[in-house]
Design brief:
Blueprint: E1 9-15, H1 21-32, E2 36-41, H2 48-57, E3 61-65, H3 71-85, E4 90-95, E5 99-100, H4 104-114, E6 121-129, E7 132-133, E8 136-139, E9 142-145, E10 153-156, H5 157-163, H6 175-185, E11 189-199, E12 204-207, E13 209-210, E14 213-214, E15 216-217, E16 220-221, E17 223-226, H7 229-246, H8 255-271, H9 275-290, H10 299-304, E18 329-336, H11 343-351, E19 358-366, H12 372-382, E20 386-391, H13 396-406, E21 413-417, E22 422-423, H14 427-435, E23 451-460, E24 466-469, H15 478-483, E25 493-495, H16 496-504, H17 514-525, E26 527-539, H18 554-563, H19 567-580, H20 586-596, H21 601-611, H22 618-629
Parallel strand pairs: 1-2, 1-4, 2-3, 6-11, 18-19, 18-21, 19-20, 23-26
Antiparallel strand pairs: 4-10, 5-11, 6-7, 6-10, 8-9, 12-17, 13-14, 15-16, 21-25, 22-26, 23-24, 23-25
Helix pairs in contact: 1-2, 7-8, 7-9, 8-9, 16-17, 17-19, 19-20
Length: 635
């Protein structure tokens, strides 16, 4: 379809238990707009299969997240596929219950043609949402929508490539607010489509009651906009997070946005029928924002709100569809040692992966003295995808290095695996999708680009009862990698160029642990994709080589700081400088050089003033900076 100034346009729609009516809407968009990419976000309703099959029959590209990962993740999956498959100039994002008014794209085309500084118009948004006119502001002489919603939003692809996609750590709520704020800081504007109508419901309006009686004021019955407590949790958490991120930046998030959301939350806490749960949700959201906990709601907060907990055997999502791209070869590298108790459960989960990739499993046993090899040989006899290699006991780091040396050279992606975990059925596919844009690409020098995928995990006890997720992180960077590791080995997927780099520059006597070294190499020389959701049950038990504590007491944390060898971070960074320092330039090279060669107290003060020390939270960053200044990081 030709819409001058906009074409080509691709439509991305997020689905969750979609009603049958969505098929007619999507089919109409295919005919009147262009290619449609529908992403089902882990719908638990079995009826979703019929809807997805009908969408495919009408020419819609259907993608599936195996569990609910939030609106940001669903939209990002669809946008990434659209950018890869059809190279559009604009992306139109839609909710499953939204409809475009007549002539929506024609009105958008006319608006863009007459807009001031139309080359900086990054978003075209509905002027009318239902019966409400979208409030506007004036920014740099351009009239903009004050609070655009992502449904019905046309986004310029050149802007997306500059800004990146939606922030998946927000999960739901304020995802569009954050995106628009980032766009405005880069001088992109969100312009209302003159005459553009979007049929979309903004929450449920319910009457206010006091002790069961309707509340009237000045002769009128009063109403509130109702959201369930789970939504209130995300609203409180994310709005407070955005206030910290944008409150002192201009342009950013208008103060009216914070005021509106605060009013809604206060009304729910005071007047909603479930106001006790609403107050609980509000308190939990504020707490998690202050503690920098993002992504999906945690186990403890879910329990407090009476929500169902994740089961040890999550129901499978719909079968992935429309994977027509060239098949990806994924090799899983597993090191075992006396793991007879849990390794069978792990292997079963590896063999159940629902993915477009061709999966191979290479197991190296590190000198087990129990029946681990018997279990491994039994699986290898039944499934040719599994190869078992016997080895002598070398320890975790050297065993995984041996696996890297034996890995198939023709694989595209390589995964590390712990012997006592359980993988979700979507784990391999999540990494394939996340790194698909990196496969086959070259870096600035023309060589292949090293890239790393990592994610969170759900920590469980020995019987796979969930305890809580591992920590979420906002971003990966070389600055982080110098002093911390956000990439546990069991969540990693490496492109072939990164595996070769790590394999050929691996000295277990000069690194801290193999997964931290991999993260440092990837952050310094390539790219890192951090997935804010989890795809692995990380089993905590007495025999863990490396365990994980979801919540430590302050006394435990203080004791850990006292016992920590902070100089090991510097020694590892020094090894990285020797191996790769010549490949870094500018600020990155200066950051690394200053961290390794710390010098005097005055030099360390100057370093912190220029670069800072970036850790997992503001408090941790300040604490690490103090330790750096006083010399704790000296090798």
């Amino acid at each position: 379809m030709n819409h001058a100034g906009l074409s080509p346009v691709a439509v991305v729609v997020s689905l969750f238990n979609p009603p049958p009516q969505v098929v007619e809407r999507c089919a109409g968009w295919v005919q009147s707009i262009g290619p449609v990419f529908a992403v089902d976000d882990g719908s638990p309703d079995p009826a979703v299969h019929r809807v997805l099959d009908a969408l495919v029959a009408h020419g819609v590209t259907v993608l599936v997240n195996h569990r609910n990962e939030g609106i940001a993740r669903a939209l990002n999956v669809g946008i990434s596929r659209a950018l890869r498959d059809v190279a559009p100039a604009w992306i139109l994002t839609m909710d499953q219950d939204s409809e475009l008014g007549d002539g929506y794209l024609a009105a958008a085309q006319a608006t863009l043609a007459t807009a001031r500084r139309k080359d900086r118009v990054g978003m075209l948004c509905a002027e009318w949402i239902g019966d409400l006119r979208a409030p506007t502001i004036r920014s740099r002489g351009v009239v903009e929508v004050r609070e655009p919603i992502q449904s019905g939003m046309l986004m310029r692809v050149s802007m997306l490539r500059q800004l990146g996609l939606f922030d998946e750590s927000l999960f739901i709520d304020a995802v569009d607010t954050d995106f628009v704020a980032r766009a405005r800081q880069r001088r992109w504007s969100a312009v209302p489509i003159v005459g553009g109508h979007l049929h979309h419901a903004l929450g449920q309006t319910v009457p206010v009651t006091v002790r069961g009686r309707p509340l009237t004021w000045r002769g009128r019955q009063r109403h509130i906009t109702y959201h369930p407590p789970l939504r209130s949790y995300y609203t409180a958490r994310n709005q407070l997070h955005l206030a910290g991120r944008y409150a002192f930046r201009c342009p950013g998030v208008p103060l009216r946005t914070y005021a509106t959301q605060a009013t809604i939350l206060a009304s729910l806490a005071a007047f909603a029928r479930d106001r006790r749960l609403q107050c609980t949700a509000l308190g939990l959201g504020v707490r998690d924002a202050l503690l920098a906990r993002y992504g999906s709601i945690g186990i403890g907060a879910s329990r407090a709100l009476g929500l169902p907990e994740p089961g040890a055997n999550p129901a499978p999502g719909a079968v992935p569809r429309n994977f027509e791209r060239q098949p990806v070869v994924a090799q899983i590298l597993l090191s075992t040692w006396n793991g007879q108790e849990y390794v069978a459960e792990l292997l079963e989960s590896l063999l159940r992966q629902e993915t477009q990739a061709q999966v191979r499993i290479l197991v190296r046993d590190d000198g087990s003295t129990d029946d681990t090899l018997t279990v491994l040989d039994g699986f290898a006899e039944r499934d040719p995808r599994i190869t078992v290699v016997r080895g002598e006991n070398r320890g975790v780091d050297r065993s995984f290095h041996a696996l890297m040396q034996m890995a198939d050279p023709d694989a595209d992606l390589y995964f590390f695996c712990d012997q006592d975990d359980v993988w979700f059925t979507d784990k391999v596919q999540a990494a394939v999708e996340a790194l698909s844009d990196q496969l086959g690409l070259s870096d600035a020098s023309g060589g292949p680009r090293p890239a790393l995928y990592c994610s969170r995990s759900m920590v469980t006890d020995s019987s796979l009862e969930p305890i809580g997720p591992t920590r979420d992180y906002e971003r990966a960077s070389l600055a982080h990698a110098l002093v911390m590791n956000i990439a546990p080995g069991h969540t990693m997927a490496l492109t072939a160029p990164l595996l070769r780099l790590v394999r050929d520059h691996f000295d277990p006597d000069k690194i801290m642990v193999f997964d931290h070294w991999i993260y440092l190499v990837a952050a310094g020389l390539g790219s890192v994709v951090f997935d804010h959701t989890w795809h692995t049950w990380y089993r905590n038990h007495d025999s863990n080589a490396i365990g994980y504590s979801v919540k430590d007491s302050w006394s435990t944390r203080i004791a850990a700081v006292r016992e920590a060898d902070f100089g090991a971070y510097t020694r590892q960074a020094a090894q990285f400088e020797r191996d790769f320092g010549s490949q870094l330039h500018g600020r990155r090279a200066a950051r690394l050089r200053g961290f390794v060669h710390q010098g005097s107290l005055l030099s360390r003060l100057r370093y912190v003033r220029r670069f800072g020390i970036e850790h997992g939270s503001t408090l941790a960053s300040v604490s690490a900076a103090v330790l750096f200044i006083v010399g704790s990081y000296r090798p």
